[in-house]
Amino acid sequence: GSAAGASATSDGPASPAASASGSASGLVSSPGSASASGSAAVVVDVVGKVRHPGVYRLAAGARVDDAVRAAGGAVGGTDLARLNLARKLVDGEQLAVGVAGASSAPPPAVDTSAADGSAGGSSTAAAGPLDLNAATETQLDALPGVGPVLAQRIIDWRTAHGRFDSVQQLNSVSGIGDAKFADLAPLVSVG
Fold first, then answer.
1. Are 7 and 55 in contact (CB under 8 A)?
2. What is the bridge-based pairing of β-strands 54-59 and 41-48?
3. What is the separation of C-alpha 31 from the centre of its chain, rounded to a whole number of angstroms?
4. 38 to 11, 30, 43, 49: CA distances (angstroms)
5. I want to staple 66 with a disulfide (CB 3.0 to 4.6 A). Which of 35, 62, 116, 176 is the partner?
């Protein structure tokens, strides 16, 4: 079975019935009807090279693939290799499809109570490195090679030691060896 959202052929806005694979089952509503109320949904802003960019309300647990499909699929010729189509979406994130420099990791400051300005205030900035000292379990879980167990170990290490003083300290977390550290180091920071 092909789970890549690049071949979505829906021409209508957010039409889950147009997808033969059924992976658009995470769709709750179409653009313009997104509401932040209700905890059984995530609201994401899908931008970039999709047929119908906009704000979409999807079922909790929805994946990047669901958001791309909800936005009508990627436009022809769009490279989706930078997107982890299987990653769970985080409420309030912006998903940039086919945009140079965009990452498939959720933004580090999804919560509006988190410190802002760390990205220099650029309105076009893609998601930057994830701050190990502010990241939630969900955000850590979304990093490549980090599942819920390892995400919890990172949080446990942070709790036990007060904070990460350097990215190098990630090597001290049980389950992170040299290879995994090499993969994660460019994706994280300490604030």
1. no
2. antiparallel
3. 18
4. 29, 16, 10, 29
5. 62
> pLDDT by residue (tens digit) across 84-108?
888 888 888 888 888 765 555 555 5
Neighbouring residues of 104: CB distance < 8 A, sequence distance ≥ 6: 64, 82, 83, 84, 87
DSSP E strand boundaries for 85-166: 94-97, 130-131
Q: Could you give the CA distance from residue 115 to residue 109 in angstroms, rounded to a whole number?
A: 7
Q: What is the pTM of this model?
A: 0.41
135 closest CA partner among 164, 104, 169: 164
Q: Which of 152, 148, 185 is nearest to 170 (CA)?
A: 185
> In this structure, what token pair is assigned to residue 52?
């119908």
The identity of residue 162, as a single letter, is G
C-beta of residue 16 within 8 angstroms of C-beta of residue 8: no
Q: 55 by DSSP, 3-state: which?
A: strand
User: Cβ(54)–Cβ(97) under 8 Å?
Assistant: no
